[in-house]
Amino acid sequence: MMTLSEAARANDGYELWLPPANDPAANLDIATLGTGATLDIAAGELHRDLATAPLPILLATNLRPELAALKLPGAALGREGYVVRRATVAGRAVILVSGNTETGVLYGAFALIRAARTGADLTTIALQSAPKVAVRVLDHWDNLDGSVERGYAGASLWNWWELPDYKDPRYTDYARADASLGINGVVLNNVNAKPDSLTPRYIAKAAALADVFRPWGIKVYLSARFSAPIELGGLKTADPLDPAVAAWWKAKADEIYRAIPDFGGFLVKANSEGQPGPRDYHRSHAEGANMLAAALKPHGGIVMWRAFVYAESDPDDRAKQAYTEFHPLDGKFADNVLVQVKNGAIDFQPREPFHPLFGAMPRTPIMLELQITKEYLGFATHLAYLGPLFSEVLEADTYARGKGSTVAKVIDGTLDHHALSGMAGVANIGRDRDWSGSTFNQANWYAFGRLAWDPDLSPEAIAREWAQQTFGPDPRLADIAVKMMMQSREAVVDYTGPLGLAHLMGTGHHYGPGPWIKDLARPEWNPVYYHRADASGIGFDRTRTGSNAIAQYSPEVARRLADPRTTPESELLWFHHLPWDWKMNSGETLWHALVAHYDQGVASVAAMQAEWDEARPLVDPERWQKTATFLAIQHREAQWWRDASLAYWMSLNHLPLPAGSAAPA
Ligand code: GCW
Fold it and tell me: Predicted ipTM?
């Protein structure tokens, strides 16, 4: 029996996808060979999360002599991989959970839990897996004052005031959730970084968190402010080529490693949106990154250097700027630097074509940055499952080395043979009881973690395993949840910016429609900059007759994008400016197709509402009601997006609404 408080925690989502399933009377036979903090955690998780097991469970690393005769895979598992299978050890039939390290065993334990919770037959279980991506991190945009930039799930989890003395048990719960997915790194503070995060006081606080996370296989990283040598060190400059600056960073790194021996490294946002950086001293991004990398190198740390830059370097098209600045630097970065590239060239829009830097810097390990928090997809309120968005970019073909050069192969290091590889997700986690602002938002954290482990997993399969674990084994409920999830992201695209339109939101807060906005200081902050609509047409010409951004893609891709007829319709107006009466593949006009998409977006939300109504008898009242209320908000706001957007387009094109549109005339 679950205690009352456990039941409450499960019902309001606190336990995420890991509500305890244990019946203490079940008294499972779970043993370990050897001892270790991580091994103990793995055993504890199985006790907590597994209801039954057909055989005793044995946890051990491959190093144990008792397992030698089994000829378990070794090299194939790497440092973090696992194998879970039946075996006979010392004459006893067991389910063996093993790996080369205790961390591998822990991941194996979670894989076993996942298998059991999703209906696998444990008597025949045979799992083997190793992560395809090395660095799998959550980037927390958490400020030291407890606020979270673009966070919609309450205040920061990290209670800087109480740290380092008080370690809130919630830090352990957070680590459990991360480890269950294979997330192995946490950047604690916002990329818009304050220098204070590098002071001794805050290093001690970060060290306390690192101590909590370590046995769960998770390393701590910090966002570093490039000008910290001035602000904290009293130097006159932060010029990366100044020896005093390099010495300051070296001493700082040494200090951090004394407190956190396995510190992961620095994440840096430089020369972007007002942040300081090497360009302030006429040095390149590589010179800046390499100076920091040299300070971390003796300790085994890495630098994640973001390519999200936009200064005034490419005033004709913001989408070109990162490539313009970074492409010439290929081969110039130190070997412990990852260049971190957002999925698209603008900024986490509901749909963006893949970033042209993927595949364009073969001599540099490129990591992918995704946004789990839904800055442009309705914050925490709107239901949008991001698995399909994440997979769309991972599956995109860069043609960098011919057909099949997918973004997944670029970022997992296999295309260009990099051992260092990474994937970052901007976290959607805060102090809300349900961690992510809604039950369904938890699925985005989940999907990010699973795809970082294996970018080739199917988003629908991930949705199903998340739903089964979150809501319990009833297949009817999982079916409904998966159906809702799989249409949800496209719905948001449809009601906010169909056919390749993007960046049409209210500026500043980024919530709700604002395609008419044109008075912000920098041209590329204004929605009108992106849609370029007038009486005769709509869309951003990124072909040779326009900004020619398409030339940043490999020739094969550029050729396809040069012609609106061979451009995917979902990206049409991202790359082309077309007349309102342009004939779509279906034969209807662009205007009619646009209106149909807006209507479809609203209709999809209504469909999700109807589906969720069917789930009512199958789910606890708390989670049902919150989701239902949020869907009602989403439906109202989908109409707001559609009606406001259409009214604005009609003020430009003076066309009537097509017959049959549900939008108000
Ligand atoms: O899109 C912008 C966000 C900023 C964010 C920035 C970035 C952390 O609106 O809030 O700053 O992206 O990614 O650096």
Answer: 0.99
